[in-house]
Amino acid sequence: LAKVAAFHSAVDVSHRNAALSVSGAGAADVLNAGCPQDLSLAAFPVGACSRTLLGKAEVVLYRMAQEQFHVEMWRSFAPYVADFIEDAIRRDV
Q1: Which fold does the domain 17-90 belong to in CATH?
Q2: DSSP string, 44-82
Q3: Do residues 35 and 53 lie in contact, with contact meaning Cβ atoms separated by under 8 Å?
Q4: CA 75, CA 59: separation in Å to the nearest integer?
Q5: Rounded to an integer, what distance in angstroms lies between the CA atom of residue 67 and that of residue 42?
Q6: Which residues have CB under 8 Å from 20's CB, separation 6+?
Q7: Distance CA 25, CA 62 (A)
Q8: By the 8 A CB rule, do 66 and 85 touch?
Q9: Is the pLDDT of residue 92 over 90?
Q10: Are the C-beta atoms of residues 93 and 32 closer than 8 Å to each other?
Q11: What is the pLDDT of residue 75?
Q12: Distance of CA 16 to CAs 4, 44, 53, 90, Å?
């Protein structure tokens, strides 16, 4: 960056995100309690990744295995997303 003649800035944003793992039988159903996207295995196969909504939070979903999802969100949304997932589990979605 020292050789760049234009005004510039470098900002570390590596700590802006948080992630949760949702796994087990019914993981897709739990996430679909607040996600409008079709998370069936046929529509969202292993390896699929998408930016979507979970409740009112924007998240990135990555299907790591048939019954395992990586859910990434802005750190400030992490408590909301965790509570949302816990509520969906309690409701036995």
Answers
A1: Gyrase A; domain 2 (3.30.1360)
A2: S-TT-EEEEEETTEEEEEEEEETTEEEEEEEGGGHHHHH
A3: yes
A4: 11
A5: 13
A6: 70, 71, 73, 78, 81, 82, 85
A7: 16
A8: no
A9: no
A10: yes
A11: 95
A12: 26, 26, 18, 29
Any idea which residue has 């949304």 for tokens? 77
Give the model's confidence band at 93: pLDDT under 50 very low, under 70 low, under 90 confident, else very high: low
Amino acid identity of residue 12, one-letter, is D
| Interatomic CA distance for residues 40 and 28, integer angstroms | 7
Report d(CA 87, CA 93) in Å as an integer.
9
Within 10 angstroms of residue 75's Cβ, the number of other Cβ atoms is 11
Task: Name the token pair of 64.
Answer: 């790591």
